[in-house]
Write a structure and sequence with these properties.
10 strands; 3 domains; alpha+beta; 5-stranded mixed beta barrel; GMP Synthetase, Chain A, domain 3
Length: 247
């Protein structure tokens, strides 16, 4: 469940409130806490939620939803209404435009000679906003690309540059452990990872075995590093065990 993780509130409640539900947008791994304002929504209901001033199409996956911190209530998104047939048709068009939009942006970037990788193109349900996530090794002058995208979709364009790890968190997937990537679920802050962590744990130094989907060293190498650094072997964890979730 999304929510603030850095407030000073130290308690934790398992209270379940009928005024909050967990909504999933597209293929996102995490659920978003949404306020129903007294209305009752069942699991599977499709709803329109206000996200950054724009309507977004989602599906209720948890009803009611537990609220762990008071600050989560303040950050909960507002459910505007149950999704209508028109909303569902608009969502289908949105998905089609996003698929064709990514191809268009990739082709225009190549035509303009821009050294960048397009990770994801998101178009709002209203069609008024287009968000492009990309990775690049160097600074990119994408002003002409923005004009081309705005002309193609008639939308306000936002370009967001992300790193390799952030891209994996954005796209999701499965790690070498067979579980959903930590970075796309619960891991929100990346720690510096070094090859020394793998050496201390007596792991294979084969890059294919200690690298995540992002091509960087596995974030889970740091999970038990403090215990290995102190010369202690974690309980129930053999020294040569495979790493956990990938980053």
């Amino acid at each position: 469940m999304s929510g603030c993780g850095g407030c000073s509130y130290r308690g934790m409640s398992t209270a379940v409130e009928s005024t909050f539900v967990g909504v999933r947008f597209a293929e996102e791994t995490n659920l978003t806490l949404c306020a129903t304002e007294g209305r009752i929504f069942a699991r599977g209901d499709r709803v329109i939620v206000e996200v950054e001033g724009e309507p977004a199409f989602g599906q209720v996956e948890q009803s009611p939803a537990p609220v762990f911190k008071p600050c989560q209530k303040a950050g909960a998104k507002k459910i505007l209404r149950p999704a209508s047939n028109e909303d569902e048709s608009a969502h289908e068009r949105q998905l089609e435009r996003q698929a064709s939009g990514k191809i268009f942006v990739q082709e225009r970037a190549r035509a303009l000679g821009l050294e960048m990788k397009i990770s994801r193109v998101h178009l709002s349900l209203s069609g008024k906003k287009a968000t492009v996530h990309f990775t690049a090794e160097h600074r990119v002058d994408f002003r002409q690309l923005v004009r081309d995208i705005a002309h193609r979709f008639g939308a306000r364009v936002q370009m967001i540059q992300v790193g390799a790890r952030d891209e994996s968190a954005l796209l999701g997937g499965l790690g070498v452990c067979g579980r959903t990537l930590c970075c796309s679920t619960w891991l929100k802050e990346f720690r510096p990872i070094s090859i020394q962590m793998a050496k201390r744990q007596n792991l294979s130094l084969n890059p294919s075995k200690i690298s995540g989907q992002c091509g960087r060293l596995l974030c889970c190498l740091a999970y038990e590093d403090d215990q290995y650094r102190g010369g202690k072997r974690p309980k129930d964890s053999p020294a040569a065990a495979a790493p956990g979730d990938a980053a």
